[in-house]
Write a structure and sequence with these properties.
The chain has 13 helices and six strands.
Length: 360
Amino acid sequence: MTNFKVNLQLFTGEKTEKATPKRRREAREKGQVLQSKEINSALVLFFVFLSINFFHRYWFKEMYVFYHKILNYSHSVNSIYTIENITLIFTEALIETLKLSLPFLFISMIVGLICSYMQVGFLFTTKPLAIKLDKLNPINGLKRMLSMKSVVELLKALLKIVILIYVAASYLTKEYNNILNVFDMDIGQIMSYMWKVVWNITIRSSIILLILAVLDYFYKKWEFEKELKMSKHDVKQEYKQTEGDPQIKSKIREKQRQIAMRRMMQDIPKADVVITNPTHFAVALRYNDESENAPKVIAKGQDLIAQNIKRIASENNVPLFENKPLARKLFYTVDIGEFIPPELYHAVAEVLAYIYNLKN
């Protein structure tokens, strides 16, 4: 009894194959790309706080000047509680706030764009914005909320919060004695020390977030590749779509061979001579000394096709010339529609001369 091995993956549809380039292109066009938002957030936070640390003296100085200006203004007027004065103070406060915050907003935007470009590259698509009715279904929404992906994202967020709280608490514990000495400091020293505490906690948190972001990127990559995987049936169907169905391609090639054979048989009556083997090979030659520099093979065949070539040649009074070595040489070295090579000029010329002498 013979045992046959059957690949059950063709029936179960299990996705075990890596995504093909076509599958990746289609996913990218739909907006499905590998991107970790954690890396963007961590790098933006890191560079923003670096810039704040670099400009914090200028920042505090500008704030001090602004508040000093407001206090002087309140003493120089009879009442600040009027529409004109409140509007003026609000406008100046808004301008000062924008002046102090715009550089950091600009830095965060540039860092975010660079991070996105490094991960995704340039991509513009509106397909993710298309309205999908299944997203309005509350049952599908509940399934997405309770899916494994949502649970993993929740656990990641909780882990990140716990780690950040631990980093902040551990640093504040080490600074416990210095924090108690704050009451003995003046205002300038308190501001300087508070900024030092905030900076140390922030820079430690940023480094931890960067490490978590790198781990998240590798997890996202694994998840992305898993979602793009294809079943063997999908790969087979894609191959049919791109390369064509093998059965259809085979039929097309068969049809092309039939057309070429029919055209070749139609050209045999135009031949000057058919060189034969005599049973296995037949090659039909045509020579036009006015437009062609050498004889041309217009038909050739082996076995049954050779017999048909000889039959058609006989029916149309085309001479048959038996030369076994020359027939084999022409059959194997010259394709249909090509001129004979120079090394066969002498042998073919003798044949043509003999045929022309017979005709004349």
